[in-house]
């Protein structure tokens, strides 16, 4: 992941002003890419290699306008990162139909519109190598109560991404997904950075085998890898970046975290691995 690895490339990141998106924009730009940011809020960092476009990804024409602005300044984009998302927390009887539709307008239709504009301009420019990386969530496969809209919309993102991998592979475009687990965005986001209580954060962290919350940089590094030439044969993948929390039930509900390792080396034995 050396500086300059993406030199000469142009990328568009939707939802890039805060949290994971901000980290992704920074990682791509630090690697030499020229990056456009499409978000409802302006990108907060003053960088000559970042172009901020304030618009709603769900509005037809918004992404095309951002891509046109990028082309005018730096040339056609060969990288698209779909990070823009609406993620309300509401149960069945709490969520209005309008709120439900808005989640899908942003998370699913917004992704479709972004991919459609990106691929059309990619073809028109005669490019031969491109990347689409979409951000999903572990809850697409392990949902939580009051999260039906977000989880199901991200499950749709994963299915759409796999479909596009098959459609666009012959054009030289790979389509992959990064699925974060619990990520602590405090210090990296101006949009609801404290929506989780300390008790909830502790509970979420206790379920992670690596023993820590994820950081925005963890997601950004995975996205950056999928944009590099070294990832050329990675297509239709869903890469979980969650410290292993999606592997299974790490501990039973109410069980206190242990300071002892689950596995230990048995003294004097050859293979030496025994279950605790």
Could you walk me through the main structural features you see in this protein, from its secondary elements to its overall organization?
With 276 residues, the protein is an alpha/beta fold. The chain has one domain (10-275): Rossmann fold (3-Layer(aba) Sandwich). Helix content is 35%, strand content 16%. The protein has six helices and nine strands; from the N terminus they run βαββαβαβαβααβββ. It has helices at 19-30, 62-74, 97-125, 148-168, 198-206, 216-227; strands at residues 10-14, 34-39, 50-54, 79-82, 130-135, 173-180, 238-241, 263-265, 273-275. The strands form two sheets. Strands 3-2-1-4-5-6-7 form a seven-stranded parallel sheet, with helices on both faces. α1 crosses α6.
Major sheet strand order: 3-2-1-4-5-6-7
Mean pLDDT comes to 90
> Main β-sheet: number of strands, strand sense, barrel status?
7 strands, parallel
Termini, distance in Å? 38 Å
Q: Could you estimate the helical fraction of the residues in percent?
A: 25-40%
Which structural category fits the helices and strands? alpha/beta
What is the CATH architecture term? Answer: 3-Layer(aba) Sandwich
- Domain count, please report it: 1
Overall form:
globular
Report the uncertain regions.
264-276
Q: Please tally the β strands and state the result.
A: 9
Question: How are helices and strands ordered from N to C?
Answer: EHEEHEHEHEHHEEE
Task: Work out the strand percent.
Answer: 15-25%
User: Whole-number radius of gyration?
Assistant: 20 Å
CATH topology: Rossmann fold
Total helical elements: 6
CATH top-level class: Alpha Beta
Output the CATH homologous superfamily. NAD(P)-binding Rossmann-like Domain
Protein name: NAD(P)-dependent dehydrogenase (Short-subunit alcohol dehydrogenase family)
Family: Belongs to the short-chain dehydrogenases/reductases (SDR) family.
GO biological process, one term: fatty acid elongation
GO molecular function, one term: oxidoreductase activity, acting on the CH-OH group of donors, NAD or NADP as acceptor
């Amino acid at each position: 992941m050396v500086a300059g690895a993406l030199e000469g490339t142009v990328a568009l990141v939707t939802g890039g002003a805060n949290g994971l998106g901000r980290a992704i924009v920074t990682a791509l730009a630090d690697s030499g890419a020229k990056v456009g940011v499409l978000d409802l809020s302006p990108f907060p960092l003053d960088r000559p290699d970042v172009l901020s476009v304030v618009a709603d990804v769900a509005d037809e024409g918004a992404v095309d306008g951002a891509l046109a602005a990028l082309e005018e300044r730096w040339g056609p984009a060969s990288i698209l990162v779909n990070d823009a998302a609406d993620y309300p927390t509401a149960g069945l009887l709490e969520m209005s139909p309008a709120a439900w539709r808005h989640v899908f307008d942003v998370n699913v239709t917004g992704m479709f519109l972004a991919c459609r504009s990106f691929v059309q301009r990619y073809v028109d420019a005669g490019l031969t190598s491109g990347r689409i990386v979409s951000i999903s969530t572990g809850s697409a496969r392990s949902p939580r109560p009051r999260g039906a809209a977000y989880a199901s919309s991200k499950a749709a993102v994963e299915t759409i991404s796999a479909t596009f991998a098959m459609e666009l592979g012959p054009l030289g475009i790979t389509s992959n997904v990064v699925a974060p687990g619990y990520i602590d965005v405090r210090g990296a986001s101006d949009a609801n950075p404290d929506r989780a209580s300390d008790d909830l954060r502790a509970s979420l962290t206790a379920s992670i085998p690596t023993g820590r919350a994820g950081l925005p940089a963890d997601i950004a590094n995975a996205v950056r890898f999928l944009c590099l030439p070294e990832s050329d044969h990675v297509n239709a993948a869903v890469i979980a970046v969650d410290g292993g929390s999606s592997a299974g039930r790490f501990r039973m509900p109410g069980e206190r975290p242990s300071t002892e390792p689950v596995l230990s080396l048995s003294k004097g034995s050859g293979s030496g691995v025994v279950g605790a």
